[in-house]
Amino acid sequence: MPATASLLRHDWTTVEILALLQQPLLDLVYQAQTVHRQYNPGNAIQLATLLSVKTGGCAENCAYCPQSAHYQTSIKPEPTMTVAEVMATAQRAKEVGATRFCMGWAWREIRDGKAFDDMLDMVRGVRSIGLEACVTAGMLTDTQAERLAAAGLSAYNHNLDTSPEYYDQIITTRTYGDRLRTLDCVRQAGITLCCGGIVGMGESLQDRARMLEILATMQPHPESVPINALTAVEGTPLQEQQPIDPLELVRMCATARILMPKARIRLSAGRSNLSREAQVLCFMAGVNSIFYGEKLLTTGNPDRDADRQLLEDIGATALQPFAE
Ligand code: SAM
Ligand code: DTB
Ligand code: SF4
């Protein structure tokens, strides 16, 4: 392994990242594991639980998303959950061992008003029971980011999803620039960034490298990087996409770890389709966070019992909240 491979860098190039992604898998995983041990000693894995507070009927046309109003899927718009309902779910998540509680809104952007005031109450409530609070709710303004920060929001999730070059094949109702502007507002407000993307949408290896390049040249790097494997949902334009080869996913996780040594790399959507062994390879490659609980936003996730057993079998522990 080159001596410089584990330095914190923000000047990665596409060519370098492509070379990492394409090297022999065992060399790649070895390099990623070496960086991981250096920066993140111990065997702690973060358990984050997701809740869809506002489901379906979204104005955006993201080709992967079952919640877009542009497509006919089995997901129908549902009434937004109340603060009390969300708090009851957060309390249960805490009792079964989650440390981060992530709340999702199927919105193009946050608008001021009762729904936003409720969101602020949810953030305060989740923090008051000792959990980290994360929100994902589309674009936001400086002022909204500041209000979320004041309410105690730990992280805002806003994914790049793919490369700038492939973006218009996937979404046309917003631009990459819109995405970057929101990320900037979040950073300026002092909220940590949760930003990653999806693999398995028909993108090229170059697209994967470019997405990782945008993330790895941010200064500082995002604190959390979710890597989602596309869940192809019936009714969406990507319904026919074949599942990604798990070894490709391992490559993506390992490369993300090498590029962003300190980030929490989260193996996100798609874990239900992975064997235990494939997930362990991802952990070897530097993954140190998963979604925990039988549901993501609208699609399935492994059972809690299966996940607890997996962690026990490999001798991993659950990360404590606010450990960072
Ligand atoms: N509406 C907000 C937004 O798009 O930022 C927040 C919710 S959105 C569902 C959050 C993320 O979930 C997306 O950015 C995408 O990366 C991921 N996602 C959505 N549908 C997915 C699918 N079918 N497979 C994998 N990831 C998916
Ligand atoms: C992220 O990157 N993945 C999560 C979370 N951030 C919000 C969402 C995955 C959604 C998968 C499809 C669904 O369940 O609707
Ligand atoms: Fe809406 Fe987010 Fe789904 Fe896109 S990914 S359609 S913005 S909920």
Mind telling me the C-alpha Rg? Answer: 18 Å
Q: Please, how many helices?
A: 11
CATH class: Alpha Beta
Note the overall shape: globular
Helix content: 25-40%
Quick one: biggest sheet?
10 strands, parallel
CATH architecture: Alpha-Beta Barrel
According to CATH, the homologous superfamily is Aldolase class I
List the helices and strands and how they pair.
Blueprint: H1 14-22, H2 25-39, E1 44-54, H3 83-95, E2 100-105, H4 114-128, E3 132-136, H5 142-150, E4 155-157, H6 167-170, H7 176-188, E5 192-194, E6 197-199, H8 205-216, E7 224-229, H9 246-259, E8 264-267, H10 276-284, E9 289-291, H11 304-314, E10 317-318
Parallel strand pairs: 1-2, 1-9, 1-10, 2-3, 3-4, 4-5, 6-7, 7-8, 8-9
Bound molecules: S-adenosylmethionine, 6-(5-methyl-2-OXO-imidazolidin-4-yl)-hexanoic acid (DTB) and iron/sulfur cluster.
6-(5-methyl-2-OXO-imidazolidin-4-yl)-hexanoic acid binds at residues 50, 66, 102, 104, 136, 157, 159, 196, 226, 228, 231, 268-269, 296-299.
Task: Describe what you observe in this structure.
38% of the residues lie in helices and 14% in strands. With 324 residues, it is α/β, with parallel strands linked by helices. The protein has one domain: Alpha-Beta Barrel (TIM Barrel), CATH 3.20.20. Strands 1, 2, 3, 4, 5, 6, 7, 8, 9 and 10 form a 10-stranded parallel sheet that branches. Helix 2 crosses helix 9 (246-259) and helix 3 (83-95) packs parallel to helix 4. The two termini are 28 Å apart. The structure holds S-adenosylmethionine (SAM), 6-(5-methyl-2-OXO-imidazolidin-4-yl)-hexanoic acid (DTB) and iron/sulfur cluster (SF4). 6-(5-methyl-2-OXO-imidazolidin-4-yl)-hexanoic acid (DTB) binds at residues 50, 66, 102, 104, 136, 157, 159, 196, 226, 228, 231, 268-269, 296-299.
